[in-house]
Amino acid sequence: MTTAIDPELRTKIDAACRMEEEFTKLYNEKVAKKRHQMTRLYMDNGLLVWNENGANGKDNIQKYFQELPRFEYIMNTLTIIESSQGW
Description:
By secondary structure, this protein is mostly helical. It has a single domain (7-67), classed as Nuclear Transport Factor 2, Chain: A. The protein is built from 2 helices and 2 strands. It has a two-stranded antiparallel sheet. A hairpin with a 2-residue loop joins strand 1 (47-50) and strand 2. It is elongated and about 50 Å long. The model has no long low-confidence stretch (mean pLDDT 82).
């Protein structure tokens, strides 16, 4: 037996999926092609965790990205998790 999803909730879920997909696309384009602009996406006290490695602060995050080898990113799956504030 399937239950129907409330139309308002469905609209919010669809919007969240579109926003997350666009953010992920832009973020990974920056990592792959415009690493020198990555600090624009982080606060001064930002924290980055990448493959179990970390960097604290905007300057250290920029340095971390600059030292990564070049790569091409292909998104296969996307997961959206509801926050404690709701959708």
